[in-house]
Amino acid sequence: MLYFRRFVWFIAKNLVILCVILGMLACGFFMAMNLSNIYVVLEDGMEKRVDVMLTRQQAEELNKYFSADFLLADPALAGALNGQSAYVDYNITDYDYELTIEKAWAWPWDSYANCTVVERVPSISGNVIASRRSEVSSRIPKWVGGRYDITLAKLNGQWKIVGMRQVTVLMEADDNTEELPTEILVP
Q: Which domain covers residue 161, as residue numbers?
């Protein structure tokens, strides 16, 4: 009887250890899957947002990355599409986009994720629209980037950006200096 009890205890102990290990592996797998999806949505979505704000083209593609409520409430995007952007007088041909994801976290059982990103557009190239050449400067305005706290939600099995709050403003340095961008805290 003593040997049987030891044998049962050995099997039970090893089963518990195996279940814990399998649970940790499953949790890690789903966390990695969620985070990889979140990284793709953040990088592609934020770059598409900047592209639409600069060129005012293909705005319908934003629906892949952002919730409808966010798109209706985004003042920067609304200003760009309503012709109130600093870039409305320019034909933007190219730009450099940089997104640094500082922090991202999503538990496997949650349908929300919080991230912190830094967005910059260090250079923008293009020219003035022909009809506005005499009225505006030929120098394209610098992009005002920033550090954002972003909230994503899993809607119908797909991650989408549902909220974005600017924490700091990053002012790009002039072209003729080697300075880093200036960071200003947003209240």
A: 2-185
The reported pLDDT for the residue numbered 166 is 92
3-state secondary structure of 110: coil
What single DSSP character describes residue 172? Answer: P
pTM: 0.81
User: What CATH number does the domain containing 155 carry?
Assistant: 3.10.450
Number of structural domains the chain divides into: 1
Q: Kindly tell me if the per-residue pLDDT of 180 is higher than 60.
A: no
Max distance between CA atoms of the chain, in angstroms, equals 100
In the chain, which residue ranges form alpha helices assigned H by DSSP?
2-55, 68-73, 75-81
Give the CA distances from residue 177 to residues 23, 55, 112, 181, in Å, rounded to whole numbers and listed in that order.
Answer: 53, 27, 41, 11
